[in-house]
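> call design_seq(struct)
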């Protein structure tokens, strides 16, 4: 007898790692995703970009154009654009972050890190007086020229923001960027979400296909803080915070918080400059913004890994 209610096919979810201004990598990755996913599944997929669209690579302007164009080109897809720490800082410089919810001024965010101002060469040009800390750091001129951790020279600031300025035709650290960035790019940066939650996302595990909750956040959630409180703060886009750990943290946001292990929850992030899958913790940032590294994506539920460097034929 025919089953009148066959099981619903799980929706395809594509989680795309940090792009960092590399338009060709993004275009190649997108083409590869189209090639390896069934067309009907791809046309209705949930696409989650994990943040850090700017800096390091040469084509931030073109990357933002590409991302902004997707909803028109793929109207049945759902596109989620997470805010990365680089995007937060770019937005802070342009003045598109929401105002602090307690009515305080952005210069209050400087105090905690004032001891770093000289070394990091914080921005002191037009409109700096009430700019969020990360905007000043982003457009600054780092006095230390070599990044010993990455083994490469800083590109202007601690954020490697010089290529972003140049992609809009202005020199690094110039206030002219505020006028050069198109309004639609400013709106895109202003609208980025700090966290995204999704119910009923299917993932292939050793025990078969499992339906889970999914939380996407650029760096991760802090292990020893109440999860609900963190989510509430991130949804509110609380810009009183000098450094948002969920967007910028490292070791403290690497693991899934214990309370999320009680019900199956996928936590997916970029940010960390590595590709790491352990159980339901997915870290997808193989590129790290370095020219020679690929941009990667993970497709759910299959857990297929797709890179811009794969040679897939449409």
């Amino acid at each position: 007898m025919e089953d009148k209610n066959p099981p619903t096919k799980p929706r395809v979810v594509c989680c795309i790692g940090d792009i960092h201004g590399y338009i060709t990598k993004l275009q190649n990755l997108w083409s590869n995703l189209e090639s390896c996913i069934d067309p009907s599944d791809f046309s209705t997929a949930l696409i989650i970009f994990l943040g850090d669209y700017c800096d390091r690579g040469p084509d931030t302007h073109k990357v933002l154009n590409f991302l902004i164009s997707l909803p028109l080109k793929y109207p049945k897809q759902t596109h989620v654009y997470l805010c990365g720490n680089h995007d937060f800082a770019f937005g802070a410089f342009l003045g598109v972050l929401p105002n602090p919810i307690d009515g305080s001024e952005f210069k209050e965010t400087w105090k905690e890190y004032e001891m770093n101002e000289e070394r990091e060469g914080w921005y002191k040009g037009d409109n700096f007086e009430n700019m969020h800390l990360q905007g000043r750091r982003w457009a600054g001129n780092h006095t230390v020229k070599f990044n010993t951790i990455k083994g490469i020279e800083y590109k202007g600031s601690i954020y490697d923001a010089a290529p972003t300025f140049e992609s809009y035709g202005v020199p690094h650290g110039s206030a002219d960027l505020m006028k050069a960035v198109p309004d639609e790019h400013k709106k895109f940066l202003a609208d980025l979400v700090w966290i995204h939650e999704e119910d009923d996302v299917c993932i292939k595990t050793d025990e078969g296909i499992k339906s889970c909750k999914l939380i996407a956040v650029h760096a991760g959630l802090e292990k020893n803080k109440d999860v609900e409180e963190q989510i509430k703060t991130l949804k509110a886009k609380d810009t009183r915070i000098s450094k948002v750990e969920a967007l910028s943290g490292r070791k403290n946001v690497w693991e899934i918080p214990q309370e999320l292990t009680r019900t199956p929850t996928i936590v997916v992030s970029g940010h960390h400059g590595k590709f790491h899958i352990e159980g339901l913790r997915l870290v997808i940032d193989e590129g790290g913004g370095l020219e020679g590294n690929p941009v990667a994506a993970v497709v759910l539920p299959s857990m297929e890994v797709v890179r811009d460097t794969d040679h897939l034929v449409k």
